[in-house]
Write a structure and sequence with these properties.
The structure is a homodimer of 146-residue chains. The first copy, chain A, is mostly helical. Chain A has a domain at 6-89 and 131-141: Arc Repressor Mutant, subunit A (Orthogonal Bundle). The first copy, chain A, has helices at 6-19, 31-36, 42-54, 79-85, 103-127, 134-137, 141-144, and strands at 58-61, 67-70. In chain A, helix 1 packs across helix 3 and helix 4 (79-85) crosses helix 5 (103-127). The structure holds a DNA duplex (30 and 30 nucleotides).
DNA sequence: AGAAACTGTATCGGTATCAGTTACGTATGG
DNA sequence: CCATACGTAACTGATACCGATACAGTTTCT
């Protein structure tokens, strides 16, 4: 999998909630409002917020006046957590299975897989340096965060 | 774009060429042989080797006895170069365009884009520590390379 | 109680991408 | 001349995604 917009949508939604100070049920933001700021469809937003809720980053409530709000401070929500919450990864592809019997054909896929895993971990580690709060201060802050 | 197998195929092909000591035209390896070691289709291999040739990593020659061979030593071919040669990237998705007029809705996409770019760069940097030669020594070497 | 707002989820259609295959023109070597 | 092999185009089937509609269940307000 992966040219998914889930991660960008999730990051945007969390930043929006942080900006709106949605830290409790009485300040919940509806999916329609979040969707309007992307812009995208409210259903797309709800598909993502449902995953974020399962990951414990936000809470949601149905019914009039319902919506989503943050369960943690924006400074404490790291983007690698967000990425994992929406099942995203820095997918570079999976190695082909390799061929039995050929000693080199058998081992290369494992080595390639190890390289991909290492790159994936490096991307996640970089994202762990960025918090949702960093997304609000200025467009360059996220890239500079260290 | 991007759950592509291009990067794994490219890495596998280069490692195979290195293993076969294909360092000159007279040791060229045909796409059929490369494909057989993945296994995949020869055309899939040629689509990738054509890109690697354009990037100057290998050379290819048509006709009987033709095929692909390396233009650089396996130790000198870094995996980030390979990834760029096949137009791959650690795709985490692209931010939605954002909404004009809303100050927060306008800036968040830029911040998200900066975060994604940073993660992508981190993945590439990690790959730059791994050479094609590292893929041959042992399956874990690639992950350990530093 | 009834209306209105909102979530979560199922489903469907349209679009895009990819792997694999076949086919063809071109180039190379015997 | 002919077999070999690359590069590329075209087609197919599979897969994934976004967006939209629909609906059941939940919550608030009057």
């Amino acid at each position: 999998m992966s040219d998914s917009q889930k991660f960008p949508v999730a990051a945007h939604a969390l930043a929006y909630l942080a900006h709106k100070d949605a830290m409790s049920a009485d300040r919940a933001v509806a999916s329609g409002e979040l969707a309007a700021s992307m812009p995208t469809n409210p259903v797309v937003v709800r598909r993502v917020t449902a995953m974020l809720a399962k990951a414990g980053l936000i809470a949601t409530r149905a019914g009039a006046g319902g919506g989503a709000w943050l369960l943690k401070n924006p400074q404490e929500i790291r983007l690698d957590t967000v990425l994992r919450a929406v099942n995203g990864c820095a997918h570079l592809g999976a190695p082909p299975p390799g061929v039995k019997g050929c000693p080199v054909g058998e081992r290369i896929p494992d080595a390639v897989r190890a390289a991909i895993t290492a790159a994936d971990a490096a991307a996640a580690e970089r994202l762990s340096l960025i918090s949702v709060a960093d997304l609000l201060v200025d467009p360059q802050a996220a890239g500079k965060a260290a």
